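note to self — DONT lose this again. spent like an hour looking for the file last time. sequence + predicted structure for the chain T wanted, 276 res
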Amino acid sequence: MTPTPQLSIDTMAKLETVFVSNNWKIEVKNRMSLYNRFCETLVKFDEGEQQLILDLTKRFKWIKVEEYQHAFEKLAYQILCEYPNADIVLAPCLPESDLGKMKSARMVLYTMQATSYTYDLNRCWIEKDNIAEKSKYIKDNTIVVLADDFVGTGETALGAVDYVHKVLGDKISNDRIKVLAIAVQQVGKQTLNDIGIQVYSEYIFDKGITDYYHADALVDVIAKMESIESKIGVKKRFHFGYGHSEALVCMARCPNNTFPVYWYGKNTAPYERQRR
């Protein structure tokens, strides 16, 4: 085990332990590997800040795109079983302003459309672009399912619900609108539940710091994360992740709800968010 410059052998040993525990591949020779990106990230911070990143990473969930199909099949099947007499329309969880953009919600529906799972084609339609295209199929027994891979604050999903109501008007009520996502933050799920929208998900995550640490430990950890974000120049609106979400998750693309230390930084952040 050869230490990276400025990164102690002890810190590298802890990092390797985290990688093994999370079943992540350790690639030392590939400079752009996830492992080396973590090393490049850790060297920017002092020992206490490094330890916080390592502690958070123990609870970090990386959901790879190859896991999507199984998760969506499972969730879609659950909805079909719960509503045996309903017609189901699957549509992207997108507000009107995001229609036509390259968003994960559209990729999700392409995945579901290409799945080997046999949906009940007599009562299930997939509309991967715009719910308006299926408006003529909406009946009194129709359930509209808004699909995405991740729900953070719930802001995007609320915008999608608003668009459904704009397009369908009195033809649909909130109790017949569902949100389907592989992973959701508890705060976003609660936001949707509060307006009567049921959420189906494989994973539900609490906030990574404020829902985990308490009392003096919480104060200390918040101060460390604020220092970390100050050192890498995180913009105010992404403080502790967009909407202060404090997420510890990466999907096919890392959500900006995740702590920026994981994605904020060109060619060094472990899960860098590439510009589209």
